[in-house]
């Protein structure tokens, strides 16, 4: 089968690799769609993503969906031909968390994640024609949610987790700073959760158009205009340290900032004084636990992710797909890879 394999920085190949066979409790899925994420771009550009360093060739991709092709022994409740997506995280060890972290599996100390070099050996992702997956990680897609949309259940789960870090959004005014794919999904998730007014800010006009299509009531071109002031609830989705000063200043005194954009793992300059003087609450948001199930339910309930998917490429054109995804001047938001027979 063919797979999108990163061998090192600036070394991406579509390789022929052996077809997988399912072990006990596993299924083989014929992959149909994949969405390119910032971590995929980081492995391609730098040979690392955050603190995870590429040591061996690895199949990329964790935003994926397909159809069950082969059932391994002992698998119940799944059928050949069934459309599915995945919980890409697999806990290593006994899975037990301290009581204070109950239900927060995203904070478990060791996790194998599709397309991640965090552990050695690395965990291959799903940008391939076939993939063997543990049955408990498989999530069936309901009627009305095709595999193209289902591939975005994972990043939508990230957005829903971020929104869920705040108890109640009903009727509230929300600012989302950074309207890339995750920021635009936070816009949609906030509206889905009942937010009254959602404002999206970014420096790229194409990203603001996507955010507007995803449900933003208003947009701000941050390259020209200042952020709105005195917003009680702000989601920082850019991950840019240089933006933090303006974001904290835009947050109302006593307000809350949810940090969903990944910040650098190295020293970076940022203006943080308002965190103290405005008595702000700054909350981190990392991946998700089981919100992938909530994401699938939201898709089935009509949350529309179509405006996010701006470009589509075949698997053999993965290098060009990565280039487009990593170049904001292309107007790209979520770039999709057609991995198999799924149709747009």
TrEMBL record:
It comes from the Bacteria. Its cofactor is Zn(2+). InterPro entries: ADH-like_C, ADH-like_N, ADH_Zn_CS, GroES-like_sf, NAD(P)-bd_dom_sf. It holds the Pfam family ADH_zinc_N. Belongs to the zinc-containing alcohol dehydrogenase family. Residues 181-300 form the Alcohol dehydrogenase-like C-terminal domain. This is L-idonate 5-dehydrogenase. GO terms for molecular function: oxidoreductase activity; zinc ion binding. Keywords: Metal-binding, Oxidoreductase, Zinc.
